[in-house]
């Protein structure tokens, strides 16, 4: 994979934001093919990280999506839930069936570096200059990148997206 990948753990260490930054613009389509293809290796992509100090610069962004999950759930064998034969007596005493199941997802990365998406990151400042590394790794996401919000213990990708603004090929930071 011709990309730099960074893992940013949340405070509880169960959740992490992964950012894959292709080393060149042409590598983006290759990266997208690798992560969406049948040969995608969860083991290769999400493991083997080592803790290190990083000078991290990522743009502020907010993405949200709304998705009707009916067809997905019917495809998984839940068709009865959407029919009059549905037994949802644990939810209501009245005869009912599900009409729609809608998923709304939101991820926001703010300038402070806080990531919000059903979890909160805490940003801490060092109090001693002695703890700063001499040569931190520089990770500047100043072009297209792919990101994942993942629950690492269960190995579940909760949110996946691509930061790509067709009107610009580079993001300028102050």
From TrEMBL:
Top-level lineage group: Eukaryota
Annotated Serpin domain residues: 3-166
One Pfam family of this chain: Serpin
Gene Ontology molecular function: any one: serine-type endopeptidase inhibitor activity
Any single GO CC term annotated in Swiss-Prot or TrEMBL for this entry: extracellular space
Entry's family note: Belongs to the serpin family.
Identification of the protein by name: Serpin B4
